[in-house]
């Protein structure tokens, strides 16, 4: 059985949410007592999480699960090189991850599998009282998101979405500045995922060569090209919202005194992926594939407190990387594309200041404390912070800084955007996943240097 068949087969066995029961007090781990962690999915992204976890003395990787022998071997090599004990290995068929949940005795699982498996694997982990660190996204359909939410609320099992961009150094500095009032009252926010993924969505299919080198995807592709590209074939919407919406939501205190109320999405024509193949391999059969995903998808969200948020998804055209952040208030703004900040009364009228100068003065306490520890981490240090936040919150029995409400609302933007586009760019009401709790909850994300 290949990896995609493994994933699809396992989805078919999803269990229903367990009955509501009284919730136990969160466990707190004693000093010196390691968290036993399983890593579900040790592909390219899973290897990054392995690297971060292996650097820590307060966790033990006791189980790994994947169906790709090449990546299993790479994971075992990495673990052995770090001088850590060999973990239990679960592989081979569509129930391998369920056996890991049932037999390995893990306290927590890092779910780093293709998107279509995140919901079922999270739900069954929570039902088994295994804490969940889930890579983005939380689910595919709107029902997926409701199911994940209900499972967490019924079981009380900790769940965190591993959105690392919330911990990017400039993003946290901008949040720090906003909380000091430097931008004034926040009025408008922008972000997105603007990243040329053509060489991610297509490759040669050769193990160990995930980026470029060919124009295969699906069964003939390898790594992300095996599963991710199919979403560009059959779906049209904001497919990867959390990198952009996560930092914007933290700025707007979503679910903590504020909420999303409405959403409208637009998609451009789809040309980029077809042209990429046709230009470089005109005889390749994949030139005949009809890609559905618009090259540029924009989603506008309205908030209860009057802010607007604009997200842009742009992964099929030639372009440099940018998440396009904009934080704008009544006293000034930050725009990451031009690396500029303007603060009324402190900047020269109608001129930009270098953002790095402002950020150096307002570096977030987390980065002041952990910059050295994050120096060797992936994605410019962000991966250290998101893994550290999950581990520290779990060990202390404290709320997850990116919690279940954040996870399902940020990720539900995808099916809502698909619906909006399919229905002629109709404006949709945004579900209140908190059932009114947003009005009473207080912000907790990144207020100090703990995690």
UniProtKB/TrEMBL annotation:
Q: Which residues form the Glycosyl hydrolase 109 C-terminal domain?
A: 172-354
Query: Which residues fall in a coiled-coil region?
Result: none
Q: Which cofactor does it need?
A: NAD(+)
* Source taxon at top rank: Bacteria
Residue ranges constituting the Gfo/Idh/MocA-like oxidoreductase N-terminal domain according to the UniProt record: 35-135
Q: Which InterPro entries has this protein been placed in?
A: Gfo/Idh/MocA-like_OxRdtase_N (IPR000683), Gfo/Idh/MocA_oxidrdct_glycsds (IPR050463), Glyco_hydro_109_C (IPR049303), NAD(P)-bd_dom_sf (IPR036291)
Q: Which UniProt keywords apply?
A: Glycosidase, Hydrolase, NAD
Q: Does the keyword Hydrolase apply?
A: yes
Task: Give the family per the record.
Answer: Belongs to the Gfo/Idh/MocA family. Glycosyl hydrolase 109 subfamily.
PANTHER family tied to this protein: BCDNA.GH03377, GLYCOSYL HYDROLASE FAMILY 109 PROTEIN
Under what name is this protein listed? Gfo/Idh/MocA family protein
Which organism encodes this protein?
Answer: Lysobacter brunescens
- From which lineage does this chain's organism come? Bacteria, Pseudomonadati, Pseudomonadota, Gammaproteobacteria, Lysobacterales
């Amino acid at each position: 059985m290949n990896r995609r068949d493994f994933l699809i087969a396992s989805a078919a066995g999803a269990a229903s949410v367990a009955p509501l029961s009284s919730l136990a007090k969160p466990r707190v781990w004693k000093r010196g007592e390691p968290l036993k962690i399983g890593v579900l999915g040790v592909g390219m992204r899973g290897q990054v999480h392995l690297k971060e976890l292996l650097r820590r003395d307060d966790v033990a990787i006791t189980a790994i699960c994947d169906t790709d022998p090449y990546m299993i071997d790479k994971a075992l090599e990495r673990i052995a090189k770090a001088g850590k004990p060999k973990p239990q290995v679960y592989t081979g068929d569509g129930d391998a991850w369920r056996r890991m949940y049932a037999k390995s005795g893990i306290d927590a699982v890092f779910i780093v599998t293709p998107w279509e498996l995140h919901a079922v694997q999270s739900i069954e982990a929570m039902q088994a009282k295994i804490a969940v660190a889930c890579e983005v996204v939380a689910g595919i359909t709107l029902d997926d998101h409701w199911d994940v939410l209900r499972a967490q609320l019924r079981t009380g099992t900790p769940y965190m979405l591993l959105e690392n961009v919330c911990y990017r150094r400039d993003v946290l500095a901008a949040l720090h500045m906003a909380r000091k009032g430097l931008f004034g009252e926040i009025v408008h926010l922008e972000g997105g995922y603007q990243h040329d993924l053509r060489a991610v969505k297509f490759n040669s299919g050769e193990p160990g060569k995930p980026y470029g080198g060919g124009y295969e995807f699906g069964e003939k592709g390898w790594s992300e090209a095996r599963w991710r590209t199919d979403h560009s074939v059959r779906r049209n919407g904001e497919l990867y919202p959390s990198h952009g919406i996560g930092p914007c939501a933290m700025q707007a205190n979503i679910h903590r005194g504020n909420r999303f109320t409405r959403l409208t999405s637009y998609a451009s024509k789809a040309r980029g992926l077809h042209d990429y193949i046709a230009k470089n391999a005109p005889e390749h059969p994949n030139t005949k594939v009809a890609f559905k995903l618009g090259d540029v998808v924009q989603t506008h969200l309205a908030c209860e407190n009057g802010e607007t948020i604009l997200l842009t998804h742009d992964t099929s055209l030639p372009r440099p990387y940018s998440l396009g952040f904009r934080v704008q208030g009544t006293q000034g703004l930050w725009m990451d594309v031009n690396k500029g900040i303007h603060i009324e009364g402190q900047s020269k009228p109608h001129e930009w200041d270098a953002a790095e100068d402002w950020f150096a003065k307002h570096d977030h306490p987390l980065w002041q404390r952990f910059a050295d520890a994050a120096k060797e981490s992936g994605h410019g240090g962000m991966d250290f912070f998101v893994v550290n936040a999950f581990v520290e919150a779990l060990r202390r029995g404290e709320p997850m800084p990116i919690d279940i409400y954040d996870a399902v609302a940020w990720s539900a933007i995808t099916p809502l955007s698909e619906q909006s586009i399919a229905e002629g760019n109709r404006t949709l009401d945004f579900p209140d996943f908190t059932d009114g709790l947003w009005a009473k909850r207080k912000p907790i994300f990144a207020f100090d240097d703990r995690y």
